[in-house]
């Protein structure tokens, strides 16, 4: 899928900033922080435009955010993989700091107190990715 197709699918206008962010996310297997997305052209868009664009893309369901335990925010495309489940878990490598969307369903069972209702389960698995695991 191309960036133009994604924007068309979500019925969004093709602005430079939207295109730039989606291009970076599409090229990356890992989730990216705002800084990482900007890295190739840090001066291309001002902060406000960038922030607003990320917000719009998130609100429209094009991308989702992953918040790490140190409050770093990373972004990834929705439905990057055809079988991606909206309730997927994420993996954070403690060594290279890479964040990945895990494919497939996350099974998570928690016993809630009586009359409690769960709306969302947000799981980030901390560990080592294959590359870092083989190095250590
Ligand atoms: Zn790693
Ligand atoms: Zn994800």
Summarize the structure in words.
The strands form two sheets. The protein has a three-stranded antiparallel sheet with strand order 1-3-2. A three-stranded mixed sheet has the order 5-4-6, with no helix packed on it. It has helices at 3-9, 16-27, 34-38, 47-59, 130-135; strands at residues 32-33, 63-67, 73-77, 90-93, 99-101, 124-127. 32% of the residues lie in helices and 17% in strands. It is built from five helices and six strands. The protein starts with a helix and ends with a helix. β2 (63-67) and β3 (73-77) form a beta hairpin. The longest helix is centred in the middle third of the chain and has 13 residues, at 47-59. The model has no long low-confidence stretch (mean pLDDT 90). One zinc ion binds next to α5.
Could you tell me the radius of gyration in angstroms? 16 Å
Strand order of the largest sheet: 1-3-2
* Proportion in β-strands: 15-25%
The largest sheet, given as strand count, sense and whether it forms a barrel, is: 3 strands, antiparallel
Which structural class do the helices and strands define?
alpha+beta
CATH topology descriptor: Arc Repressor Mutant, subunit A
Low-confidence spans: none
DSSP strand count: 6
CATH superfamily: Winged helix-like DNA-binding domain superfamily/Winged helix DNA-binding domain
Q: Determine the number of helices (DSSP H or I, runs of at least 4 residues).
A: 5
Q: Whole-Å distance between the termini? A: 36 Å
| Tally of individual domains | 1
Can you write the helix and strand succession as a string? HHEHHEEEEEH
* Relative helix content: 25-40%
CATH class category label:
Mainly Alpha
Large-scale geometry = globular
CATH-defined architecture: Orthogonal Bundle
Bound molecules: zinc ion
- The overall pLDDT average reads 90
């Amino acid at each position: 899928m191309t960036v133009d197709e994604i924007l068309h699918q979500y019925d969004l206008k093709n602005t430079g900033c939207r295109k730039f962010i989606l291009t970076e996310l599409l090229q990356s297997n890992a989730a990216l922080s705002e800084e990482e997305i900007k890295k190739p052209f840090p001066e291309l868009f001002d902060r406000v435009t960038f922030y607003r664009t990320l917000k719009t893309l998130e609100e429209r369901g094009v991308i989702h955010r992953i918040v790490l335990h140190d409050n770093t925010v990373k972004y990834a495309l929705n439905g990057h993989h055809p079988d991606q489940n909206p309730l997927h878990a994420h993996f954070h490598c403690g060594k290279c700091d890479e964040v990945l969307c895990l494919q497939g369903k996350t099974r998570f069972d928690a016993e809630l107190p009586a009359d409690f209702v769960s709306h969302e389960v947000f799981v980030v698995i901390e560990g080592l990715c294959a590359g870092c695991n083989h190095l250590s």
